[in-house]
Amino acid sequence: MEDKQTIKQGLQRISKWAEAHYKGDAKLIPGMSKTEIERIVKNFPFKVPEEIIQFHETGYTAMFLSPYPNHFIALEDSTYGCFSCGHLENTYLNDDDEHSIAEWCEINIAYGSGKELYQARCYRHQTSFSPVWIRQLGMEPYLYASSLTNSILANAECYESGAYYPALIKDDDGDFYVVEVDWEKAAPICKKYNPNQIDVWRDLHREM
Known about the structure:
208 residues; alpha+beta; 10 strands
């Protein structure tokens, strides 16, 4: 399912849908140049997965991870420090050598509208893809998607199929647009791209 080119295609499909159908906050964040990205990651002690690099090269709208606006975290901010590290042995680390024996590091991708934090995992060696993890206050982190690419492709297909659809909400503060979910349509798509996380997607759609 995964291919390094498909993340760009998926992001472009979501942007195209948003431009045609959504009148809410779907601001397009422009992509970064290779030079900018190389400057940011060159001194980072871990290797940023190739799909994360391509994600930042391509540009994206606010709804790439879910049908709800996400708060983006710039690549420079996400690689400035690590949220958590996995260590090769249970050894106490001083601040000065925080990453000296770390095998991997989690970097932040975005905050969701439900205050969940989406993260990718970076290793010492180069990887093409990274699972996407979610952290929520008071909960253990859990797996959201097998890769950022599969998450984006699932969302792109949900938009195009009508599983995610725009709805106008009217209230005393004025009219605004949201994206609603038809779970009967969305479920087989989510299962197609992330079969092992289908319950996670179902629960998140119910909560938001």
